[in-house]
Amino acid sequence: MPAPPPTGPLVTRDTLAAQLRLLGVETGEILLVHSSLSSLGWVNGGAVAVVQALLDALGPSGTLVVPAQTGDQSDPAVWSDPPVPEEWWDRIRATMPPYDPLITPARGVGVVPETVRTWPGALRSAHPQTSFAALGPRAREITEGHAPDCRLGEHSPLARLERLGARVLLLGAGYASCTAFHLAEYRIPAPRVRVGRPAPDGGWETVVEVSITSDRFEELGHDYERDRPVVRGRAGAAHARLFPVADAVAYAERWLPLHRPRAEEFPHPPS
After folding, report:
1. How far apart are CA 255 and CA 268, in angstroms?
2. Concatenated DSSP letters for the chain?
3. pTM, rounded to two decimals
4. 171-to-51, 64, 144, 162 alpha-carbon distances in Å
5. Model confidence over 77-100: pLDDT tens digits?
6. What gap in Å lies between CA 214 and CA 173, rounded to an integer?
7. Predicted local confidence at residue 271, as pLDDT
8. N- to C-terminal Cα separation, the chain
9. Cα separation, 64 vs 17, whole angstroms
């Protein structure tokens, strides 16, 4: 049987850029974008057209930032989607290629961030598991100095985005994708975990990190949107939301201890 015709709306670079401007995206601003390409409709040009439209809306003085995370740079013992046999774990740890910001692909964040990561002139932060990629005049300032033991905290691009007055654009993505909320986890009591990954010079390393989870972020986002001024609109078929990083982080710092308290515990040393 022939494939069914695509469902609309038809989205082009020009129409998407116009909708982003109508939403409130400003020329020259810094924008942290979480996106779902499939939610937009039928995009002529796919992820490339979406990135072009974002850059058009921001203009040459604006800076586009996306998560470029690499969750597969992790201990196979904690993999669940899918898990791998336990007898593979040691071999996987011994042979996993270390993170290289130039060639390690982003995983689990969608095709738009991977398109930004590979865009001419893009810069990427150095954390092997929770990097960010950026395009624009503030890209280096945002991505440099991402500490290897600070996934999404004070020494990550999130804290710089907060200080620089950046805003978050949820483009067809829900609040569970909002990385800004994770910055709040570093400022409230939280457990610590041991995180395994390939070492930069080969072998395997383990670092102690703040435990991060997006559990209940959708509920947090619902309350944030109820209580704070979030710009809402449409881009293609997608729901779009626009709000300041700093305001979202401050709200999450108050909300999380009340609604999702977590004990501040430290991991036992390895036996």
Report:
1. 29
2. -PPPPPPS-EE-HHHHHHHHHHHT--TT-EEEEEE-GGGG-EETTHHHHHHHHHHHHH-TT-EEEEE--BTTSS-GGG--SS---GGGHHHHHHHPPPP-TTTPPPBSS-HHHHHHHTSTT-EE---SSS-EEEESTTHHHHHTT--TT-SSSTTSHHHHHHHTT-EEEEEB--GGG-THHHHHHTTS---EEEEEEE-TTSSEEEEEEE----TTHHHHHHHHHHHS--EEEEETTEEEEEEEHHHHHHHHHHHHHHHS------PPPP-
3. 0.94
4. 12, 13, 26, 19
5. 999 888 999 999 999 999 999 999
6. 14
7. 40
8. 60
9. 14
Residue 266 has a pLDDT of 64
Phi, psi of 5 (to 5 degrees): -65, 155
Task: Please tell me the predicted confidence (pLDDT) of residue 262.
Answer: 87
Q: Mark the ranges of the chain whose per-residue pLDDT is less than 70.
A: 1-4, 265-271
Give Cβ neighbours of residue 200 (< 8 Å, ≥ 6 apart): 98, 99, 128
Distance CA 76, CA 86 (A): 8
d(CA 194, CA 53): 40
